[in-house]
């Protein structure tokens, strides 16, 4: 028996500061229509899909910062996306900067299923970069300044005939993000990202940007027996290049679909959720093979298990 989910990974090219949300939503709808035309059940967009990656600038005026945030979802500007999805009968997931009615700021993503039901929401936990401006950098990375650490765990929800979850960008570099969902039986993880090629504190890593991106997506997929859909916002935004390398990764750890450009590009794959079963039942059978008591003992002792004397 197969449970096929046809996925459209909707990579977005550069979004400049002057680009309106309406113009971005128009591009998103074009990709959504392509996805529907190819029989996709869900289309997945990047992190902070609606605007340029604004944490690259130091801004002091909170009103200016808040212009990059959404106070409601759907908003007037994003309603056409929700309406088109309902018309096409397709699910979707995308990231945006969330400003709550209580005035809290999060880097957020959501999943909407084919019926238009909001299935789940997630707020980014691993916020990279720095809080105070660092003038030595070619560009800033002020996520710690503009967002709070997410207060929603990595949830897993019934959607598209299986169990789906989300993480956001830097989360994909941390095994805990995958494992928390793996322990809930996740079968497909959506992860959008905005990844500058140049990492100012470690420029020697720059040449490995795409490799590290795919390494963590593949490892997370294999080690938790799940599909992983990694979707980039890429190209040169305000002089800062961000990587594409949008990838659809099978529970085998193999990349079965990958973008070829730094532009708006739809990567499509038929993903059989039942392919997760053999990994969850054998190699990564957590009930059979994981040793959480040992992990706790080691962590409590803050050391490693020492080999016996003999
Ligand atoms: N961006 C980057 C990411 O984790 C980064 C930050 C770049 C970390 C390069 C390490 C190396 O993909 C976001 N938005 O998290």
From TrEMBL:
CDD domains: DCase. The keyword Hydrolase applies. It comes from the Bacteria. Residues 5-275 form the CN hydrolase domain. Keywords: Hydrolase. InterPro entries: Aliph_Amidase/BUP, C-N_Hydrolase, C-N_Hydrolase_sf. The keyword Hydrolase applies. GO terms for molecular function: hydrolase activity, acting on carbon-nitrogen (but not peptide) bonds, in linear amides. This is N-carbamoyl-D-amino-acid hydrolase.
